[in-house]
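Thiamine biosynthesis protein MoeB
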Amino acid sequence: MSSRYDRQIRFDGIGEKGQEKIVMKHVGIIGAGALGTHVAETLVRAGIGYLSIIDRDYVEYSNLQRQCLYTERDAEDALPKAIAAKKHLEQINQNVHVNAIVGELSGQLFSDKFSICDVIVDATDNFETRLVLNDLAIKYKIPWIFGGCLGSKGLTYSIIPDETPCLSCLMNHMPFSNDSCDLSGVIAPIVEWVATQQVVEVFKLLVEDHSALRGTLLYEDMWTNEHISMNVQTLKNPHCPSCGRHRTHPYLSESKRYRTSVLCGRDTVHIRPEENMKLDMLDMKQKLLKNELPCVDNGFLLHTCIEGHRLILFQDGRALIHNTSDMKWAMKLYKEVIGKLEHA
C-alpha cells in the first residue's frame, strides 16, 4: 500500500485492510458545490478508488467563499462545476478514477452512473433533488448521507435502506428549513463541519464497520454553540411511500418534478426541458450569432444576453437565466430563445 496513506492506515479504525477496501470502493456525490467539493477532496486524498460527481451548475465568483477546489480562473472561464472539480481532483490524486457528469439527477442517469456506487453523498442545495435521491437510494438499496447547511446551522443523517428512517419519514418531524442561502447566507465553517461528519460516516461504510455508524441525526449551530444528537429511529414509518412496506417511490414520477426552480443564493432561474435533449453546441452558437445575439462558448456551455438578462445554455437543453426569480417570465424567455434557434 502506498506510503501516502500511511497516517490513515495507522488509525485502528481503518488499518491496512480498511485501506484496501477504500481503494476498491465507489462513492457518488450529488452536487459539486460547498459540501460536494469538501467531501470530494477529502475522499480523493484518502485514496477512494472511484468517484462519480454530478452537478448542474458552473463556477461563479460567489462560490469561492465556501466551495474549495475552485479558483478565480475557473470562475472567469465559467467552467461547469463537475468539470472543474474533476480537473483539480485529478491533480491531487491521479490514481483515483473521477467521473464528472454535467447535468441534473434523474432516474435514468442514476441507473446509468450511480446504481453501482457503494455510498452516495448528498451535497445538493434543494429538497426536490434530495427527495428524488432518497427514492433512488432506497430503490437500489444504497446507503446515502444526507447533509445540509444554512447560515451557521448544519444538519446530517446517515440513511441505510430498510434499516433507518428515510428522508420522507423525517420530513414532518425534523427542523428542516424552507429558507435558502440567498436569504440567510452561509458561513464556510458550518459547511466544513457538515462535510466532515458526512465523510466520517462514509469511511465507516467503506471499511464495512457498520457498528461504528453514529445512528443519530446531528444538528449544529456554530454561532450559538448549540449541538444536538437525536435518536430518530422511532420515526421510521411502515406506511412511508418511499421506504414502507408498500413503497411506490413517489418522487420518481416525472409529474412530481418541477421544470423551473430558483437557484439557492442567486437571483437565477434554472429551467430543464420537458424531454431529454442533446444540442449541437456549435450549431447553437452559429444560430445565436445569426440572430445577432452575443455568444461566448467555453466548450461546455454557451453564454448569451437577451433583454438585459444573461442566459446560459447547456448541451442537455437546460438553461440558467440570471437576474430574475420570476419563473413564469424566465420560461417564456427560454421558449422564445429556443424557438428562434429552432427556426434559424
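thats it. The longest strand covers residues 144-150. The mean pLDDT is 90. bye
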